[in-house]
Amino acid sequence: MLYSHFVYILTNVRKTVLYIGVTNDVQRRISQHYFDSQNNKKSFAGKYNCYYLVYYEGFENAQSAIDREKEIKRWRREKKNKLISKFNPNWEFLNNEVF
Questions:
Q1: What are phi and psi of 6, to 5 degrees?
Q2: Which residue from 35, 39, 40 is spatially nearest to 51, judged by alpha carbons?
Q3: What do you get for the CA distance between the two ends of the chain, in Å?
Q4: Domain of 76: which CATH number?
Q5: Does the global pTM surpass 0.90?
Q6: Is 1's pLDDT higher than 70?
Q7: CB of 26 within 8 A of CB of 49?
Q8: Residue 32 contacts by C-beta under 8 Å, 6 or more apart in sequence?
Q9: 65: helix, coil or strand?
Q10: Residue 61 burial by Cβ neighbours in a 10 Å radius (0-12, 13-18, 19+)
């Protein structure tokens, strides 16, 4: 199944900060977060150097992705960690595996 929208979770190199976002192009968004972290640091992800992908989830439409993003953002860190660990047990950086 092809998905048009994604919820994604980024972290910093030490895995101490999580950033949750929604996009229709994961690679482009990671590049934007990386650029911001190396330059003006205006966004949360840029300020905390969150550009390492550890989780993503695909959706057929934007509203479903937005709803899921909002749901995950409300969770405590422990629950977010469990979600990531179930999907990516070693918390490997998946930047090179996205489409």
A1: -140, 145
A2: 35
A3: 13
A4: 3.40.1440
A5: yes
A6: no
A7: no
A8: none
A9: helix
A10: exposed
Q: What's the chain's average pLDDT?
A: 94
Closest CA relative to residue 25, chosen from 46, 50, 56? 56
CA-atom Rg of the chain in angstroms: 13
For 34-74, what is each residue's pLDDT tens digit? 999 999 888 898 899 999 999 999 999 999 999 999 999 99
Domain count, the chain: 1
How distant, in Å, are the alpha carbons of 40, 54, 73 from that of 57? Answer: 29, 11, 14
At 39, list the tokens.
Answer: 């330059």
Give the DSSP letter of residue 96.
G
How many other C-beta atoms can be found within 10 angstroms of the C-beta atom of residue 14? 8
Domain that holds residue 73: 5-97
